[in-house]
Automatic annotation (TrEMBL), chain A:
<feature type="domain" description="Proteasome beta subunit C-terminal">
    <location>
        <begin position="239"/>
        <end position="269"/>
    </location>
</feature>
<dbReference type="Pfam" id="PF00227">
    <property type="entry name" value="Proteasome"/>
</dbReference>
<dbReference type="InterPro" id="IPR001353">
    <property type="entry name" value="Proteasome_sua/b"/>
</dbReference>
<keyword id="KW-0963">Cytoplasm</keyword>
<comment type="function">
    <text>The proteasome is a multicatalytic proteinase complex which is characterized by its ability to cleave peptides with Arg, Phe, Tyr, Leu, and Glu adjacent to the leaving group at neutral or slightly basic pH. The proteasome has an ATP-dependent proteolytic activity. This subunit is involved in antigen processing to generate class I binding peptides.</text>
</comment>
<comment type="similarity">
    <text>Belongs to the peptidase T1B family.</text>
</comment>
<comment type="subunit">
    <text>Component of the proteasome complex.</text>
</comment>
<dbReference type="InterPro" id="IPR024689">
    <property type="entry name" value="Proteasome_bsu_C"/>
</dbReference>
<comment type="function">
    <text>Component of the proteasome, a multicatalytic proteinase complex which is characterized by its ability to cleave peptides with Arg, Phe, Tyr, Leu, and Glu adjacent to the leaving group at neutral or slightly basic pH. The proteasome has an ATP-dependent proteolytic activity.</text>
</comment>
TrEMBL record, chain B:
<keyword id="KW-0539">Nucleus</keyword>
<keyword id="KW-0647">Proteasome</keyword>
<dbReference type="InterPro" id="IPR001353">
    <property type="entry name" value="Proteasome_sua/b"/>
</dbReference>
<comment type="subunit">
    <text>Component of the proteasome complex.</text>
</comment>
<dbReference type="InterPro" id="IPR016050">
    <property type="entry name" value="Proteasome_bsu_CS"/>
</dbReference>
<dbReference type="InterPro" id="IPR023333">
    <property type="entry name" value="Proteasome_suB-type"/>
</dbReference>
<dbReference type="GO" id="GO:0000502">
    <property type="term" value="C:proteasome complex"/>
</dbReference>
<dbReference type="Pfam" id="PF00227">
    <property type="entry name" value="Proteasome"/>
</dbReference>
<comment type="function">
    <text>Component of the proteasome, a multicatalytic proteinase complex which is characterized by its ability to cleave peptides with Arg, Phe, Tyr, Leu, and Glu adjacent to the leaving group at neutral or slightly basic pH. The proteasome has an ATP-dependent proteolytic activity.</text>
</comment>
Length: 275, 225
């Protein structure tokens, strides 16, 4: 049995197979509104500290001006030693990180090794550049491998930056202010977690697209600590009145009961093997 | 095939309007009226102020809530105040809520072709002392209502008010008249819900309760994120 190709080299150039179909679909919405993709309107941040990497994210997902999800998970699993925060179009960040994760687990199973950060970054960059910005994914990758602790950012057009600390999303400027002020090389674990928490908190308070709770993910050589939520939102919805309805409040206009006539055609008995 | 990168001439216009967010709500009772608004002033994804209420007291018995473009809200309330003074000096009496509503309609329509980007709701007591709510569109169309929500979260609040105050879509429920305490609690609950799901609504809630004794104000905190 020959070893199947682990990862297929993607076809050359841009793949615009769906462009004609998309244009035709848009024609169907004439006069109406095309559905807007769900954007995460986010604050995400990452910091490299002495023993590893800390990633942080808020948990609000917005669909234009309405909060669609109050507890969405923006820190995605890539491999046991690599996690990725995603900002931008929610579907794009989900699917891109899922695809990356699957490809890397095929690699791990074939080679018996944990993937290196540079491999994850290269695969992402390849894919996002190929789609020429059509995939709206702004990603912060953090991980620990045999060469050390790394933090990378990959943009939607395929740009890559290797950085010691970073914030992305609509709340990035507020978070970056905190990071610029508090970052030092080789921070201790608790200080690094507090720095990332404060950065995300600044994003949550200053940016309308970020809010609710804070998730933190600590990646070290020993393992991963995914704390969700690290800090719960201090705002609880304390509505005083009860808004419950008695059964029968909604008017039933007509009721139609159609009995299904069933007859037994065939009966088979299969014994289950239980030890 | 759609052009993804347009390479022709592009016109960049200056827009005279901005959307500053905010939600306003007014409820009319048997002998009271409530006008409530959140206090967040935003632009884009940023917050300008956490303490900018949108209810403005016009007379002892009338409060107006204005949301939309803050610049036009300020100018419009200044114009209304001036007109109220002029009326007081000419006619030796305060304008009634109905009269203010009719006047506002003409003020707004006079700018039909460069509108005030403001969603107005007037709440007050009519000549008989009963609660009155008048809701407007940006060019002056208005009508008297029992309750109305306007601004960014209006689409979320209006159906809830239709159900709880108007008893719409409910069978076999007793139509109890709305008491002042229940109305105030309903307004608070409704804004707490709006702040959960609308990004432009939050920070604090300012409630103005208008009775024949005068206007009382109450402020309660909302989500700040």
């Amino acid at each position: 049995m020959a070893l199947s190709t682990v990862l297929e080299t993607p076809g050359a150039g841009f793949n615009f197979d769906n462009a004609a179909r998309n244009a035709a679909l848009e024609g169907l919405f004439e006069g109406g509104q095309t559905p807007t993709p769900l954007k995460t309107g986010t604050t995400i941040a990452g910091v490299v500290f002495k023993d590893g990497v800390v990633l942080g994210a808020d948990t609000r997902a917005t669909s234009s001006d309405v909060v669609a999800d109050k507890m969405c998970a923006k820190i995605h699993y890539i491999s046991p030693n690599i996690y990725c925060c995603g900002a931008g179009t929610a579907a794009d960040t989900e699917k891109t990180t899922d695809l990356l994760s699957s490809n890397l687990s095929i690699f791990s199973l074939n080679s018996g090794r944990n993937p290196r950060m540079v491999m994850a970054v290269n695969i992402l960059q390849d894919m996002l550049y190929r789609y020429h910005g059509q995939i709206g994914a702004n990603l912060i990758l953090g991980g620990v491998d045999c060469t050390g602790n790394h933090l990378y950012t990959v943009g939607p057009y395929g740009s890559v930056n290797k950085v010691p600390y970073l914030a992305m999303g609509s709340g990035d400027l507020a978070a970056l202010g905190i990071l610029e002020d508090g970052f030092k090389h080789d921070l201790e674990l608790e200080k690094a977690k507090e720095l990332v928490r404060a950065a995300i908190h600044a994003g949550i308070m200053s940016d309308l697209g970020s809010g609710n709770n804070i998730d933190i993910c600590v990646i070290t050589k020993e393992g991963v600590d995914y704390i969700r939520p690290y800090q719960e939102s201090e705002y609880k919805d304390d509505r005083k009145m009860k808004y419950k309805y008695r059964p029968g409040t909604t008017a039933v206009l007509t009721e139609k009961v159609i009995p299904l006539k069933l007859e037994v055609v065939q009966e088979t008995v299969q014994k289950m093997e239980t030890v | 095939m759609k052009d993804y990168h347009y390479t022709g001439a592009v016109e960049n216009r200056f827009s005279p309007y901005a959307f500053n967010g905010g939600t306003v709500l007014a409820v009319a009772g048997e002998d009271f009226a409530i006008v409530a608004s959140d206090t967040r002033l935003s632009e884009g994804y940023s917050i300008h102020s956490r303490d900018s209420p949108k209810c403005y007291k016009l007379t002892d018995t009338t409060v107006i809530g204005c949301s939309g473009f803050h610049g036009d809200c300020l100018t419009l309330t200044k114009i209304i105040d001036a007109r109220l003074k002029m009326y007081k000096h000419s006619n030796n009496k305060t304008m009634t809520s109905g009269a203010i509503a009719a006047m506002l309609s003409t003020i707004l329509y006079s700018r039909r072709f460069f509108p005030y980007y403001v969603y107005n709701i007037i709440g007050g007591l009519d000549e008989e002392g009963k609660g009155a709510v008048y809701s407007f569109d940006p060019v002056g169309s208005y009508q008297r209502d029992t309750y109305k929500a306007g601004g960014s979260a209006s689409a979320m609040l209006q159906p809830l008010l239709d159900n709880q105050i108007g008893f719409k879509n409910m069978e076999g429920v007793q139509h109890v008249p709305l008491t002042r305490e229940k109305a105030v609690q309903l307004v608070k609950d409704v804004f707490i819900s709006a702040a959960e799901r609308d990004v432009y609504t939050g920070d604090a809630l300012r409630i103005c309760i208008i009775t024949k004794e005068g206007t009382k104000e109450e402020t309660i905190p909302l989500r700040k994120d």
